[in-house]
Amino acid sequence: MKKSLFSIAFLFNSVRNLQIHYVSLSVETNSKTSKGMEALITKKKQKNHITKITWLHAIAIALVVVSCKSETQKSAYDDYVSDVYQTSQAGDNLKLLSRDETTTSSSDVKKVTLELLPDEEFQKYYGFGASFTESSAWNLATIPVESRKQVLTKLFSPTEGAGFTLTRTHINSSDYSNNHYTYIEEGDEDLSTFSIHEDMKGFTGDENEQVRDVELVEPNYDLIPMILEASSIPGADFKIIASPWSPPSWMKSGETSTMTNGSLLPEYYGLWAEYMSKYVTAYKEQGIELWGMTPQNEPLHAHDAQWDSNGFTPEQGRDFLRDHLGPQLVKDGHLNLDDLESGLRILIYDHNKSTMNDYVQKTYEDPEASKYAWGTGFHWYTNSELKDNNWYAEELAELQKNWPNKAMIHTESSIDIDANDPIGQYWRASTDYAGTFVPFETYANDIITDLNHGTQGYIEWCSILSHKGQPNPYDNFNSAPVLINPVTDEVIYTPLYYLLSHFSKFIRPNAHRIALKGDNVDGLIYTAAKNPDGSMAVVVYNNNEEAHEITIKLDTKTYTAQIAPRAIQTIHLKSK
């Protein structure tokens, strides 16, 4: 470009100098000749020469104008470069690919073209991550302090790890606590004994048979210390959604065992709402500002759960929020009705997305209940039915269409662990209580489908468990992004850790999903987002048994990457 501008400038100056030189000659000739034929000939020559000079001058000006116009049409993305990260069945774990690894000389590789449209924006993202549970804290308490800090760094650092930004935790005990517990003494109807000491007192080693005889490096470690330590990791910036699994047993009827199944008695709705509000206050006093809350985890479990649970019908959930929890949170200054984004956010439902639309309708169609609800939380269970039902894309689309002003957050997913093959199980058919499915394929398709249908965040259940999926006193052993052997101190980062990192590390809070249009290829699914700093992430999952060549068009530029078979890839585009 500089050379072209120099040539145009040279041409302009040459024409200008020629014109000046000719005028000088004309004056000199006119002074030496008489008024005759010679003067007439000179005049004609002068006219013809000036015409030629004017024409050359015009060309020079036109070239300058065209050059300036080309300069103004320079793409805003001309200086963008791409980094390509891949996780694959072949063994890549968020591997930064070299240029040689992203190109191919084979003509047999299937080629796919995608067009990235960064000005066509959709929903805003709040984050991606996994949950804080008592079981996760116990596992961290079994390993050396430096190893513990390294695990938290790998989870929450945006530069040294996955950079998780959206998390969840439990109010009272959950299915991943060491035993049942609440924050008050039995029968305390004025909440005078309320205390969250249970979440910060540490472990004795006598909570259940799974933790007995395991040496604790730091017995004083617990759920709240874990959250506080995670927040101290350099660069860590995460939000927390809190959910109750069950009220105290004495507030319920119809239980099958302690804090399991049954429903909250209507006469305790007000007391339970006050209890939950006191929990928010107590956590704030410990330096933990909760970002969101769900009124009840999995409210459709009133009869068939094997762990802490509490049933709420759609009508009961509506009434509890409208008449008790919502007003109590407003009264205590936690929820701002004038701006639901500025205070604690209430997400209703918090159960399987396959049946969420019927449930939320009762609350959203009631203006007095709906005004307290910021959005919908949902889970993915049952896993084996997801693929056959296209990951419930229609249900997601219906939710977004019917209630476009309500947020959508995936609040829980998990799989049963194969303790003999905790890595390989993600890439092959795996069977748990929900049926048979391939976990990596299921997660990748579920996340991308959710995002492409309006979901604004995705949270896995426990962030850390043991290599056996423990402790869990309910024989419901899950896998997790991080597995720890509490005896040998070995730390395992499962394929789920790397899969989640493909989203959390490159799609940051306040990013927006952007349009990504292109070829429809079986076994290939993709999504794209633009971050506040202008960088963009294209996430592609290839479930096929052969590699594909992906070409991404961005304005006037193209980027090409070869994605391996059975692999997920993030193409990160950013300014140099």
Overall description:
This protein is an alpha/beta fold. 32% of the residues lie in helices and 23% in strands. The chain has helices spanning 2-32, 37-72, 99-102, 134-141, 145-156, 223-231, 269-285, 314-331, 356-364, 367-370, 393-402, 439-452, 495-504; strands at 80-88, 95-96, 110-124, 127-131, 166-171, 239-244, 252-253, 263-264, 292-293, 345-352, 375-379, 407-412, 430-432, 435-437, 457-462, 464-466, 482-484, 491-493, 512-518, 524-530, 536-542, 548-554, 557-563, 567-575. The strands form six sheets. The protein has a nine-stranded mixed sheet with strand order 2-1-24-21-20-19-3-22-23, with helices on one face. A six-stranded parallel sheet has the order 5-6-9-10-11-12.
What value does the Rg take, in angstroms? 32 Å
- CATH homology group of the largest domain: Glycosidases
Mind summarizing the main beta sheet? 9 strands, mixed
Number of domains as seen in the coordinates = 3
In percent, how much strand structure appears in the residues? 15-25%
Which tags fit this structure?
576 residues; alpha/beta; Immunoglobulin-like; nine-stranded mixed sheet; six-stranded parallel sheet; 13 helices; 24 strands; 32% helix; globular
